Amino acid sequence: MTTPDAPAPKSKKPRYAVTVSRVVALTPRMRRVTFTGEALAAFEWSGPAAHIKLVFHADTAPVLRTYTPRRFDSQTRELDVDLVLHGEGPASTWAEQAAPGQTLQIAGPGRAYAIDAAAGAFLLAADETAIPAMATILADLPPALPVQVFVELSELSQAAALDVAHPGASFHWLVRGAFDPLPGALLEVAVRGAALPTDARVYVACESGAMRRIRRHFLQERQFPAAQLTTRGYWKQGATDHPDRDFGEE
Ligand SMILES: Cc1cc2nc3c(=O)[nH]c(=O)nc-3n(C[C@H](O)[C@H](O)[C@H](O)COP(=O)(O)OP(=O)(O)OC[C@H]3O[C@@H](n4cnc5c(N)ncnc54)[C@H](O)[C@@H]3O)c2cc1C
User: Fold this and answer.
1) Which of 74, 69, 51 is closest to 5 using CA atoms?
2) Domain spanning 121-235: CATH 3.40.50.80
């Protein structure tokens, strides 16, 4: 069992035609793309760590990929999405060449993460694809809460993509080397060493296999309560278009 998600604002995910208005290189491997469009007048921010679908080639052979709404301004109808340039795949290659004036469709958002008011502390564990999700969670956490943030990065410059401060947060940047065998291996080692109070809540989002290893560690080795643990597989090594509902619970 995981922490229950907050209700989505709508049961059927609407689609919005949007135009790229701005592209910023947050880091050498992370692009922030700002979308605008009249259609976004109906877009509803559902909360932290929600997801949307970017729909490429909507009119011909649609290709959908899952991303996190990083910021939405209902006044200006601007929606920011931060995309990792990981090297291959339609979304990553689109992000490399994204420029103002380009159009696509967005669907969503899906359900957000419900922050438990009873939590005495938080541990957030992520790789760079979940930096946007971690940023939206950090922004909503009470300032007095102690928060341990573990992020595995392909290079240290990626840390700048987590552009949210929290007074109680300690940040642990784990830089993957060329010889590290598996994505998420450093993250797993670091999280294993973290001390946690019993009333902590844990949110893990990273490569699917790493997420499962970390999930097993919490549930089996630490006997950590499942209701205080949320795990999400954001991508899977060797698989395209990984599903957005990989929670590691099976
Ligand atoms: C709920 C949710 C929210 C997400 N939010 C974000 C977000 O805000 N920003 C973001 O950048 N990503 C996010 N992701 C991850 C993103 O959906 C995947 O990385 C997706 O595979 C990218 O699509 P693609 O077309 O570039 O690659 P695909 O066509 O899906 O995959 C092509 C190849 O690239 C590999 N691959 C995919 N992602 C990575 C990676 N990060 N590093 C190395 N290899 C990879 C695959 O294993 C495959 O071999 C999120 C995923 C989920 C489930």
Assistant:
1) 51
2) yes
pLDDT in tens, 174-224: 999 877 779 999 999 999 999 999 999 999 999 999 999 999 999 999 999
Tokens read off for 73: 């301004």
Nearest atom, ligand 1, residue 237 CA: 47
Q: CATH top-level class for 15-107?
A: mainly beta
Residue nearest (by alpha carbon) to ligand 1 atom 40 = 86
Instruction: Name 30's Cβ contacts closer than 8 Å, sequence gap at least 6.
Output: 82, 83, 84, 85, 128, 131, 158, 161
Domain boundaries, the chain: 15-107, 121-235
User: Do the domains at 15-107 and 121-235 have one common CATH topology?
Assistant: no
C-alpha distances in Å from residue 11, one per residue of 7, 47, 105, 109: 9, 15, 19, 10
